[in-house]
Amino acid sequence: MNNLLNTHMQQQFGDFLLTDAVRPGPGVPIVPTEGYRINRFRDAETGVSLPVLGISASADKVFEVFFDLLELLGERAHAVLETSHDAGGDRHVDLRRGDIDLPVLMSHFCDFEALLLNDGFTGVAVVAADKRMEVQLDEHKILFVYARNLKPFRRVLRGHGIELVPELRLISEAAHLHHSQPHFSDEFNQLAARMGAADFDSVLSDENGMAEW
User: Fold this and answer.
1) What total of structural domains would you count in the chain?
2) Is residue 204 part of a domain?
3) 97 — pLDDT class (breaks 50, 70, 90)
4) pTM for the whole structure
């Protein structure tokens, strides 16, 4: 039992380092590793189908990779903040801010880097204002990219030494636990206020889906 508990609390797996946000379940059903895979997302309501990258990046580089991916979205974007603080169970609340300068948004993210990296109850998605492209950093600190043309995003990943692993399994796909700190709830509210993000009903897709704007 103690060995299982110690493994569950493990943060480093070889060269791969987890953030403080999430840990694999007891017995480590999925061993965290770096890489990316390519799948296809289809929205059941709109019929839109897009390729999607699922990216597992080590904690020491995930924020830099996130920013490099964001820069491919253009000068203006829409943003979604997701929180499961105080939501209960598996529910979460989405807050939206439309049409914001991407450099301004990224500046806000820099100020709240610790929250975005280490809070297992906070996720963010950024959608290009004039193209069907989206970059997510979800509650598990997994990156997702939705775009018709994935080549520019894949070049970013190669530049960071992140390689294609077709059968990559993500930590969210097996038993795992989310971790947070009491002050992160307040910091989430501060970030939302800084961005001017608010709650809108029935405007967003389910987790890991494209946002509807």
Assistant:
1) 1
2) no
3) very high
4) 0.86
